[in-house]
Amino acid sequence: MSIFIKNVQYEQSSVDIFIEGDHISRVGERLVCDADRVLDGTGKAVVPGFVNGHTHAAMTLFRGFGDDMPLERWLHEKIWPREAKLTDKDVYWGVKLACLEMIKSGTTCFCDMYMHYPVILRAVEEMKMRALLGSVVFDHFNDDIAARYKQEAERNMALPHSSRVSFSFAPHAIYTVSADTLQWVNHMAEANNCLIQMHVAETQTECRNALDNFGATPIRYLHRIGLLTPRLVLAHCLWIDDDEIRMIADHGVQVIHNPASNLKLGSGHAFRYEEMKAAGIKVGFGTDSASSSNNLDMIEAAKLASLLQKGWRNDPTAMPAREALHCITAAGAGILRINAGKIAPGYLADLCLINLNAPAFTPGNDFVSNLIYAASHGSCVDTVICDGNILMENRKVAGEEEILAEVNALTREFITEQ
Amino acid sequence: MSIFIKNVQYEQSSVDIFIEGDHISRVGERLVCDADRVLDGTGKAVVPGFVNGHTHAAMTLFRGFGDDMPLERWLHEKIWPREAKLTDKDVYWGVKLACLEMIKSGTTCFCDMYMHYPVILRAVEEMKMRALLGSVVFDHFNDDIAARYKQEAERNMALPHSSRVSFSFAPHAIYTVSADTLQWVNHMAEANNCLIQMHVAETQTECRNALDNFGATPIRYLHRIGLLTPRLVLAHCLWIDDDEIRMIADHGVQVIHNPASNLKLGSGHAFRYEEMKAAGIKVGFGTDSASSSNNLDMIEAAKLASLLQKGWRNDPTAMPAREALHCITAAGAGILRINAGKIAPGYLADLCLINLNAPAFTPGNDFVSNLIYAASHGSCVDTVICDGNILMENRKVAGEEEILAEVNALTREFITEQ
To answer: For chain B, which domains are there?
Structure first.
């Protein structure tokens, strides 16, 4: 299949884009191409598809389920008991809903961590998104549990995956996974050339407990047990000091910042982006799950990340709009090792067309500023292409009514429980 | 004109709403009414129209004009030189654009402060929004300037206003308006039963300068010169101490919090909402101008305000979704002395219908949570009614293409200047 996008705004000019198969083959002015589909880009701008660097897609089922509660009560009374009852069918439709929401807000690729890997894989393949899926690893410092999750991870790794979807190991956190199991994960990831994703330094409590239990802060502990490598992608890293930033940088570890989740769960606000950037660390953004943040909108994440930097530093020049856009496109793609995030020949055809015919893009002084600061939400996305397939056109996604209806039917009992 | 909204979700039930003239006359189940217009509320929820407590509508022309710059350079190099050249025509179309954007995001009423009052009044009357317009007062500590702005304010106050639009005095700030002129404003406002709106304690610099120049922090200075009364609406109040909160509360002064602007301009992040609430102060939210924040979206303001409270306090229970919704509806209306902000008989017919057929409202565990935390943006608003007139239906506003085209034509030169 080939797609020809005519006359679309890209940076300062109007260009044509030719997509052949899964990749962009030509970008230029007044191209002449013979394509299966021609899209008129007039009144639209093109941007790379957004990359959501950290989420738990199936938890979209828990959106609005116990907000505004203290973290421990929320987990113990709401999330964990309900999570234990989730069936494969629940997870399947939860992931479909998450994919629908991501497509409708311009995200073409996401990094996921959750249980029920095989059904997540099936749902994502059906929705034709790009993803790095994480097979969750827990052991709660118990060998039997460790054995079960290791087996499961090996089984999940062996499942057939399309070229769009990759496997990763997802040890949950240092307080739920032992050093032995983390080292097994590290060894397996190296042997199989996989990434490892993990929650680290999300709360002050986690850091205090690490000091009590391991005699070291989380990053120092990971360093000591040999986990800091370029394969490692760390979600959060909200509570880290200058030396830990140095360690992360020196070992080529990557970081995903989740501003909405960190604020809403009361984890904190002062993410040290400027220091990480200065140290040369690659930083992407994520939404975390819709049960904590409560949506999967990457433009919103970009605005929030930028505004927070400026606000807590009292510095309006911190994280300009272009840098925030870079974090949700090229930087995110680089962290997930995907050849996307740019509109240029040879890159994967993961891109969005933005509708400029709206107050947020008027006046058109500065497109990137208008996208991040004024539109500030995925509702400005008109068309989404991923891997050379059109996933949304004119804001319509195939099968969306069925997904909303199925999730509403499945979750009726959640409301009664609340 | 009468409007009958059938079968719309309101809190936990499905209701019918009958609007006669400018007000809601009946709310109940299975009403039988004979109306000029019948709207089907199936698949929609009703909320009061949002109240934007602080903005400078005409500055929507400057959206994206010099972002990410240090505050002083932004004002001196970008905003003030361009502002000095604004014509009545520029302001007229800037306000029309702002009204269009507000209507499209569910705002029915706003509080404005800017120069060129007569054309602002004309644009707002034409757009059929409700507004408290502020006649700006400056004197830069110079008697001639003071005389000019006083005359202008008196002339503006005498202009014919519809029942939807009211006059207020808008002395800019304590560093641009002398105590004499502030006291004149206070006297005039009392004599004419008007509100006074003003920027106060927005930056640390302002507070330091107040100590240097007046020997007191801004709120203490206003107290000393007799300005603290229930007529006073203060925008920002970001840098205030416990005693100042007490003074604001004791004198019935109201506060408008502008979270996006405060963050983006690097003014600060730690707005003391919980302390103000405990002291009994009425707090509403505003967007500030689109040149600082960069949109006029009140749902976004509500989410941001809530997330910021939780984040900087490390407390997920701070400012729940319902409280944030209250701030942008009933609290805002109360502060502007408007009998709106509630869906009940006798209240002004200022309301929005929200489209629930979207991922953000799925599952429907909790409508208010989904509205503020998940939809988190005005694009979920389907229909807007203000003063009993339908301003938007099915996301269409009369004349929107013309407004976008006029503003784009007018502002082409801004881009060249940049």
So the answer is: 2-48+345-401 (2.30.40.10), 50-335 (3.20.20.140)
